[in-house]
Amino acid sequence: MRKTLCILLALIIIMPSVVKATETPKVEATAAILMDAETGRVLWGKNHHEPLSMASTTKIMTAILAIESGRENETVIVSNRAAAAPKVKMNLSPGEEIRLGDLMLALMLESSNDAAVAIAEHLAGTVEEFCAQMTQRAKDLGAMNTIFETPNGLDSGNHHSTAYDLAMITRFALIVPGFIELTNTANASFSSNKRSYSINNRNRLLSEYEGANGVKTGFTGKAGHCFVGAAKRDDMQLISVVLASGWGEKGKTQKWTDTKAVLNYGFGNYNYDEVITADTQAGEMPVTRSRCESVNFIYTDNIKIPLTPAEKEDISVEIFIPESIQAPVEAGQLVGSARVYIGGEIYCEVELKSTEAATRHDFKTSMEKVINGFIRQLTCEETEIVLPKFGHDMGLLTS
């Protein structure tokens, strides 16, 4: 028989002295999301699982694959297809030779479409193969509703993503070594074998929002004005996505307004709370068939969650363990789990492990110890005689 023990943790609520609560963001975007980068928790969303065109926010994945290739110093020979890409572009010419790392700067700072095609062909041989790799990489990162058909985000058939998927992709991008440095570069100058280039970062958020550190603008006729943003204040890194904030000049301005409203909501309402600390005692469990009556068990992981003040009051932890555990028990043995709830909904589950060992002690094990000890004395050799199980019909405990 199994018994569930429920422990409600009384959490101390510490109200930040300077944080001003903000209302739920009002945005014009068709779809939007706010995600905590450390935990992946969705703090707010609007149609965030709806498949939509995402324009040049596509280039976040293009940059990830380019950085991960480690081939920044290779020379790219520009193809006719790359040179023919529509604006926005560097105006690369067929046969031009240019460093891959410089194309990456043009890709992320000025959103150059020809740079994206040149990168794709150089790394994968064809645009189509590169897009297949992009789509698979997205799935690997948990972005299950994303299909890439272009490396630059130009409208194409089934090319789409969701606000949630783009946040998941960006969550990974932010920990890729060199990604933040790339997207935060203010300007750059470099040369190919044919001409010199000077480019500037078009991400206004970097200069207009405290703590901004990313990420990518986007616009097509189908997608409207889009933006994936990121900002870090103190130890909190937030990711925002707004898709289809509008069209024309109004949409161009609205994507920045929408993004700031989403990020303001996050920084104004959420703070981290350490709900569970790894290696702290969670309880004790009775042990049978041992001289040790019980073993202590601890949490195996830290659980730190971004919470609003109201959510902090509604956190509970439920412990799931057997009514008792039969010896032998090893130190570090998994013995159960703990579920963390926010407002009655499961947030996560953490394993529990024993902190100490409990040696088995019954008739069978006692006899084995006696027999093995006797043989060792006679032979001076280590032995491990294991007796067969005793049945209830013999009036003895089974093992």
What can you see in these coordinates?
Helix content is 29%, strand content 28%. The N terminus and C terminus are likely disordered. The strands form 5 sheets. A 7-stranded mixed beta sheet has the order 1-15-17-18-13-12-16, with no helix packed on it. The chain folds into 3 domains: 239 residues, DD-peptidase/beta-lactamase superfamily (Beta-lactamase), CATH 3.40.710; 81 residues, D-Ala-D-Ala carboxypeptidase, C-terminal domain (Peptidoglycan synthesis regulatory factor (PBP3), Domain 2); 32 residues, no CATH class. It is α+β, with helices and mostly antiparallel strands.
**N-to-C order of helices and strands:** EEEHEHEHHHHHEEHEEEHEEEEHEEEEH
User: Which fold name is given in CATH as the topology of the largest domain?
Assistant: Beta-lactamase
Mean pLDDT: 90
Name given to the CATH architecture of the largest domain:
3-Layer(aba) Sandwich
**What is the oligomer described by this structure?**
single chain
The CATH class label of the largest domain is Alpha Beta
Q: List how many beta strands DSSP finds.
A: 18
| Overall outline | elongated
First and last CA, distance = 18 Å
- What structural class results from the helix and strand content? alpha+beta
Count of DSSP helices? 11
Strand order of the largest sheet: 1-15-17-18-13-12-16
Low-pLDDT residue spans: 1-21, 392-399
The CATH homologous superfamily of the largest domain? DD-peptidase/beta-lactamase superfamily
Summed up, the domain count is 3
Strand content: 25-35%
- Portion in helices: 25-40%
Largest sheet entry = 7 strands, mixed
Radius of gyration: 29 Å
